[in-house]
Amino acid sequence: MMKRTLILLYILLILTMTTATVVEKFMGTDYVSSRIYGAWWFSLLWGILTALGVLYIVRSRMRQWNIVALHLSFVVILAGALLTHLTSFRGTMPLRVGQTTDRYYRTDGETGMPSHRLPFRIRLDGFRVRYHAGTKAAADYESRVTVMDGNDRQPAIVSMNHIMTHRGVRFYQSSYDADMRGSTLAINSDPYGIPVTYTGYDLLFFSLIALLMRRDGTFRTLLQHPLLRKGVLVSVLWLCMLDVNATTTFPKDVADRFGHLHILYQDRVCLLQTPARDFTKKLCGKASYKGCTAEQVFTGFIFWGDEWADEPLLKVKRGVFKETLQLPDYVSVNALFDRAMGGYRLAAYVEEYYRGAQDDFHRQAVELDEKVKLVMELRQAALLSIFPYTTGGRTLWYTPTEKYPAAIPAADVRYMREVFSTLYADALVGNNAHVAEVLQGLEQFQRRHAGTSLPSVWTDCAERIYNVVPFATLLFVVNLVAGLALLLFFILRLTRRPCKLYVTRWVQRVSVGILLVSFLSLTLCLALRWIISGTIPMGNGYETMLFVAWLILLAALLCRRMEAVVMFGLILSGFFLLVSHLSLMDPAITPIMPVLHSPLLTVHVGIIMIGYALLSFTFICGLTGLFVPRHAQQLQVLSQLFLYPALAALGSGIFIGAIWANVSWGQYWSWDPKETWALITFMVYGAAVHKQSLPLLARPHAYHIYMTLAFLTILMTYFGVNYFLGGMHAYA
């Protein structure tokens, strides 16, 4: 009876959290915070589950200390959360420069209450925003304060990921006033909950490690399983799987010189080659057009805009809009303007879209309109922030047509206004030699006035290599093709006579070779993005997809003696690289937000991704086991071999993320949809290791069904939250 009650409560909590994330989408965060997560009955469910769990472990007389410690860690964490709820307080303290105050406003549910007092005072001495060199992208927000406690005066700085603590009260940088003369600090005091919670985290971490290291533990036993020694030969049956110049433009070598200029693009200073490639790919879906490089297309629109406006290079996506208007696959900019009527053919559809008609027809019209706008912005020089100038210790980048500050000398202003006129005149008469001289002078101007904002030579070299070699595109094709070919080979081996030994060994060596080359190539790709951005490439959905693929390849290499793992590694890495190409994934390299500049975030994301990568192997094993039942037992052992380290990584990653959140903004758990679904995923997969309590999962067929369905929680955690639920963790 107790076990049944535990299972029902466990399922009820998972369903409650699942429902809450959906309700939050429609009713708002405040609603679910007060009606579900903050409700007495929700805390009671956790309390009853914890109490029954402890009683069940005691009655089971469990003797493995690491298992007892693992479950005890959750009890301690929940106890810490209860102490935080009962004894902590949170609030905000708005300050103006020169103002001294001890008052703050509670933000932990005590709405309508007057302000409260701290036992000491805070004075704001100054506030500033630090920017990435040469850009308007914020690198950090800093409040300089003085703490006044009696006769004691203590200066301090509060910034993102750098908190100040005094008398057990922690201060975080929260927001600032538009005039830069005021700052709002978030305050948090949790003297009892944090020590208890962190003790639970430590206990959880060491018990998860012990789960993998204990000699007589389940994981070490699995490593010696006789079914693995035989080798797992499995198959997966679930997969059903012109060089002519377009128009007037610069020669390739001259256009390439333009690509070596620097430009402010997407809040970072980079080579002009990068926006040129993005521009061309945005218009026609690829980085070249009829033998013209991206730099030729980009400069062609600048200097020969009328001619290029007649070129049919705007790709029209298939759909109801294309079919209704009977448009070709590619149209020119001018084709979208009805010269006889003197109007823009897309204007009415775009206007209807922004008035609320956001169906597929109008959405496709807006997508095509965005391409036209991009061309217009380039022709008006709005995209050409190529003139740096340093004044007052700060470097800003300007376009040829904007209004320049009075602090810039007249001679430099005249140069910035006239250099494109000179280039235009040379372009019309084909004086490419003088164009090269002017570009050389422009490069010298950039080096002279860019201050510290120019990238290093190594960064430029990395960006050129990254722009030229489409790593992700090549690798997803190679890995999927190689993986499917290896799959076909396995199928033939299972359905026909065994192949000769030398054939099998040759296939194994080739597949491992492809795996190794793919791993090294993806490593180079990630390293190049790291050099270009200056931060570990795990800041958006595109980069995390690459990282997951990299981890899968690494795991497959480490287990390369298992043929099935090599095959799975190629197929899965190819799949994740394919996902990175979805339109919702943005491959652009941009500066990350100041709050994300934390080593804890890097560790958190990295470990979480390791967990997801390993769990993807359990999904393949499960799906394969359902279609190839004669290998179901072998696959169950292989799946569990991945499951245990995956749970250790996922559990550690979740709670390292909680520590980072507590360090960054004073709240280690906020029931954000991403957090909640990560916990749901952990709980769903955690059930799979309780074979003694859930004997049904000891059966291979039932186990594989469960693991196949469990993978849906990962898809929801990563993709569903990003694209459907939202929240502060939602990124694509």
Task: Describe this protein's structure.
The chain folds into six domains: 2-61; 65-88 and 194-213; 90-189, no CATH class; 262-449, no CATH class; 458-586, no CATH class; 593-732, no CATH class. The protein is built from 25 helices and 18 strands. A hairpin with a 2-residue loop joins strand 11 (288-289) and strand 12 (292-293). Helix 1 (2-27) packs antiparallel against helix 24 (673-686) and helix 19 runs antiparallel to helix 20 (541-558). The longest helix has 34 residues, at 632-665. The protein is globular. The model is unreliable at 229-246 (pLDDT under 50).
Strand order of the largest sheet: 5-4-3-2-1-8-7-6
Computed over alpha carbons, the radius of gyration is 30 Å
Largest sheet: 8 strands, antiparallel
Q: Which percent range fits the helix content?
A: 55-70%
Strand content: 5-15%
Mean pLDDT across all residues, rounded? Answer: 82
Number of domains: 6
**Which residues form runs of ≥5 with pLDDT under 50?**
229-246
| Cα end-to-end separation | 45 Å
Coarse morphology: globular
Q: Helical element count?
A: 25
Which structural category do the helix and sheet elements fall into? alpha+beta
Oligomer: single chain
Number of strands: 18
Defining key terms:
732 residues; two-stranded antiparallel sheet; 25 helices; 14% strand
Quick description:
With 732 residues, the protein is α+β, with helices and mostly antiparallel strands. It contains 25 helices and 18 strands.
Task: Compile the SSE list and pairings.
Elements (H helix, E strand, L loop, with lengths): L1 H26 L1 H9 L2 H21 L4 H23 L1 E8 L3 E7 L9 E16 L6 E12 L2 E8 L4 E3 L2 E8 L5 E8 L3 H21 L4 H6 L2 H4 L22 H8 L2 E4 L2 E4 L1 H12 L3 E2 L2 E2 H10 L1 H4 L5 E2 L4 H6 L4 E2 L5 E2 L4 E2 L2 H8 L5 H20 L7 E5 L2 E5 L11 H20 L2 H18 L7 H12 L2 H25 L5 H33 L7 H18 L4 H17 L19 H29 L4 H34 L7 H14 L13 H26 L7
Antiparallel strand pairs: 1-2, 1-8, 2-3, 3-4, 4-5, 6-7, 7-8, 9-10, 11-12, 13-14, 15-16, 17-18
